[in-house]
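Please produce the structure of this protein holding glycine.
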Amino acid sequence: MIQLELESDRKMFEEALAFAREQVKRLIERQPDYYPVYTKDGKWKHEGPAWTHWCDGFLPGMMWLFHRRADNGGAESRYWLDQAVRYTKPLEARKQDRDIHDLGFVFLPTYYRWFQKTKEPALNEVLVEAGRTLALRFREKGQYLRSFVAENSLFIDIMMNVGLIFYAARETGDRKLRDIALRHSLTTRRFLVRGDGSTAHEGIFDLETGEFLREATHQGWRSDSCWARGLSWAMYGFSTCYEYSRDPRFLHTATACADYYITHAPGDGVPPWDFSAPLESRKLLDTSAAAIAAAGLLRLSRLLHDPIKGHFYWSTANHILHNLCQKHLARGDKKWEGILKGGVYHIHKDLGVNESVMWGDYFLVEALEHATR
Ligand code: GLY
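Below is the modeled complex.
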C-alpha cells in the first residue's frame, strides 16, 4: 500500500516538474530576459511595483535544477544549461548590492549551482564577494544584519540569506565572517523565534544601545502574529545554519519552527497567509509558504539524528507536495503563466495576492526535485 502511494506520488511529482519546465520555457519565449516577481491575473509582465529587488535568482535557479535533472549531455540538458548561464550572468553585478538583505536568494540558487557544476574559481569569487557584501550589514550594537528597510530593523527572512556568509567564511577561512553569521543567527533565534516555535516577522532595536525593543511586521497580520512565510523561511534558514555551524541550538530552533508549522497548518499542510489572522482572513492561503516548508522539511529530515522524526518530516513534506500538486498547480488554466497558484506577496500593499510568486514556483521545483531524486 505504502509502496503504491510512493509510486503514484512520484509520478505526480514528475508530471508537476514537466509542467514547471513547460511554463518556464513559455516565459523564456514570451518575455526573454525578464525576471518576474509575481503575476497579476496570472500574467508575469505588468507594471506593479516589486517593493524590493530580491527575486532575480529564482528563475535561473529553476533552470539550474532542470539542467541537473536532465544532465545526460542531451539536447534538453544543453538547452537548460544555456538558459541557466544566460539568466545567471547578468546577476554578477549584484555581488556589490548594498541595498538589499537578500543576496543569498540571488546567489545561492545561481552562482552556487554554477560553481558546483564547473568548479571554476572565478564563479566562487563572485559568491565570496557577495557574502562579504552581505556581511557589511552587520550592526555590532544589536548583533544583527540590518534589513533593507532601516538600520534598526531585523527581518526573519534574512535567515535564508545568512547561509551565503557561512559559505564565504568556509571558502576563505575568514573567522570574522563566520562569527557575524553566527551572531546574527543567535540574535534572530533569541528575539524573533518565540517559545512555542512561532516567529515574528521583524525585530526593532534601539540604535544607541542595541537593546531589542519590540516585534513588528510588514507582510504579516500584526506584530505579535505568525506570518506563514516568515515561519517557513525560519524553518529552512535555521536548518541551513545548522548544516554550516553544527551548533545544536540551531537544529533545535529549526525543529521548533517545523513543529509549530505542522501542528498549526490545516490537514493538507497548506497554511493561511498568517497563522494568527482572523478566521475570515485565514481563508486566504499562501501556497508559497507551503512550498518553502516542504523544501525546508526535506532538508531538515536529513539532518536529524532521530530517524523516526526524520521520516516524519520527510513524509510530511511529501504530503504537502502531494496537496500542492493536486489542488494548486495552474495546469488546468491555459492562460495562467505561473506554476503554482495561490501565493501571497504583500497583502497590505495589495501586491501579488492570490497569484503566482517567483519564489513559490522556485521552492516548489526545488522540493519536487529533492523528493524525486
Ligand atoms: N521579502 C521576502 C518575502 O516576501 O518573503
